[in-house]
Design a protein that fits this description.
The protein is mainly α. It has 2 domains: about 70 residues, no CATH class; about 60 residues. It contains 7 helices and no strands. The model has no long low-confidence stretch (mean pLDDT about 80).
């Protein structure tokens, strides 16, 4: 971007100038991050918009990875089993039922999703019965 919002040009289009409030606003909106996160990323990798974009994508990917349970890594199985206060076998069974999301596994192990699924099944059976009786 140019030093002034009125000026247009190639000069520093690929660079992020943190001293310019309009640039901070523009790049924050473009990368969908807060100005503070943008400033931290620029401090970490430099002023190049390409490098900052790659760094922010990497951070988002890492955050997503942290929320997933990997059963192939023994230390992760031990960590999540200890965190949810269950045996590794119970953890593996829960992951098989609800997927790798730590949030879903936690809810399932605490009875949240299991209870919800049972209620949904009962409701769907009740609806089926009602539609069958109406048809007769």
């Amino acid at each position: 971007m140019a030093d002034s919002p009125a000026k247009r040009g190639k000069a520093d289009r690929a660079l992020i100038a943190l001293s310019q409030p309009h640039e901070v606003k523009y790049w924050s909106k473009k990368f969908k991050v807060t100005p503070a996160k943008l400033k931290a990323a620029v401090k970490k990798v430099g002023h190049s918009s390409k490098k900052v974009e790659a760094y922010l994508k990497l951070l988002k990917h890492k955050a997503r990875d942290r929320a997933l349970i990997s059963l192939t890594q023994a230390y992760e199985v031990a960590y999540w089993a200890k965190k949810f206060k269950v045996t590794p076998a119970k953890l593996k069974a829960a992951v098989a039922v609800v997927g790798r999301s730590s949030r879903n596994v936690g809810a399932y192990l605490m009875g949240g999703m299991g209870a919800l699924k049972m209620k949904k099944k009962k409701k769907s059976k009740a609806k089926k019965r009602k539609t069958k009786t109406k048809r007769k």
